[in-house]
Amino acid sequence: MANFGPHTTGKQVVETFIEQVQGKTFVITGPSADSIGAETAISLAYGSPAKILLLGRDGDKIQPVADHIKIISPDTIVMPIQVSLDSLRNVREAAIQILDDDSIPKIDVLINNAGIMAAPYTLTEDNIESHFQVNHLAHFLLTNLLRPKLTSANSLRRVVNTSSYGNIFSNIPTSPTFENGQSYNPWLAYGASKTANILHAVALNSKFNNQGLKAFAVNPGSVPTNLRRYITDETMQSGMALHKQFGVTPPARKTLQEGCATALRAALDPDLSVSGGIFLDDCNVTTDGKVVAGYALDVANAERCWELSERLVGQSIQQ
Known about the structure:
Layout: H1 10-16, E1 25-29, H2 36-45, E2 51-56, H3 59-72, E3 77-82, H4 88-99, E4 109-112, H5 130-150, E5 158-162, H6 186-208, E6 214-219, H7 233-246, H8 256-268, E7 279-281, E8 284-285, H9 299-313
Parallel strand pairs: 1-2, 1-4, 2-3, 4-5, 5-6, 6-7
Antiparallel strand pairs: 7-8
Protein name: Short-chain dehydrogenase
GO molecular function: oxidoreductase activity
InterPro entries: NAD(P)-bd_dom_sf, SDR_fam
């Protein structure tokens, strides 16, 4: 087995587990050019997958990634699908499009990668704070809607949620609107959504492991992408103050290739067992409190998050 670490690249992971990529179908959210999602998809192309579904808001930003994949792997079918995660209605429409497409009999791996960070206070059309919906709730709904194809015969049955060490800053919110903005802090809102990403993985394993489903959450590290577009001098200062408060040193920067590697190991390594841990950092399973809070791995907290999420999407998820 390869010795994975902080400088492992996505291509190295794909090369190591190439049999888990060849002929498989992958769904990736947030694949705009020059993003971790895009680099994940491009890395997978080197393993000759059957299909890659690219789910993103802006088709013009997805198309260059689709074109790049086809250059690397001409036989791979690339399917850009437009979806706005700040609309649960739109998420349902995208899921139905995938479920109704007979050319997609199964989904081997779903990588819930899309997200926002440190954004100004905004409510979505569903009256939910934007971080919690875009980063968590939309993916919660998408995952559960796609589950029939994720758990179909001969599927890898893997779900990977892109989280962050920011989960240590906040548990899930008691109010999905942050008391109409009165208790809003952009970093705490981001942290709460990243905690929810991990709790979602915990709950998926608890509820659907008997169907062969495995779910993991990952910290990609600090990667210079458009995720930082909302950061101002003021939010940067408040973010540094939060790091100091929690005794956390900001991590060293990673390249896009290094940033996508952890999610790819979580997606592809057949020897990863959820009983051995579901959170990965620097391409390895960890429970280090500096990158993952205890409450983010707590089964009872995961059930609370699941029930809150069901209520917010207005749909009970059947096991």
